[in-house]
Specification:
Blueprint lengths: L1 H44 L5 H22 L4 H16 L10 H29 L1
């Protein structure tokens, strides 16, 4: 009987282990979406209309979102980063495209948030180790 109970616990363990990753991914993605909308508005209010400044703010917001997601799921940073990058690229299809779409602008527009997410996840790892 004890052996059957252990098998049930083992079967339930992977679902419980995956749950924090998806919660972390959803929290990070939602935070990224909010910061991608709010930080450029703050820059506009501060009269910094340059497009690259807005992209830098989006990069910073994405790094914060990636760091939060990595902190919420400390055991799976690569899975969190990969899921956030995929969601970021998918959500870019629903955003307003830049007015002049050159190769460099497309690279900054699509790559900036993704690199920010990855940087945030990578920066959160040493911080988590130092906190423990």
């Amino acid at each position: 009987m004890d052996k059957g109970k252990n098998m049930t616990e083992l079967n339930a363990a992977p679902a419980d282990a995956r749950r924090p990753v998806w919660i972390a991914v959803m929290a990070g993605w939602l935070l990224q979406l909010v910061l991608k909308a709010l930080l450029p508005l703050v820059l506009q209010a501060a009269s910094a209309p340059h497009w690259y400044a807005a992209q830098a703010a989006i990069f910073i917001g994405s790094a914060i979102a990636g760091a939060l997601a990595a902190r919420l799921a400390p055991g799976r940073p690569l899975a969190v980063a990969a899921a956030l990058v995929i969601l970021s690229l998918l959500s870019a299809g629903f955003e307003q495209f830049p007015p002049s779409m050159s190769a460099m602008v497309a690279l900054v527009w699509l790559g900036g948030p993704c690199l920010g997410l990855i940087a945030g996840v990578l920066l959160a790892r040493p911080l988590a180790r130092n906190a423990n």
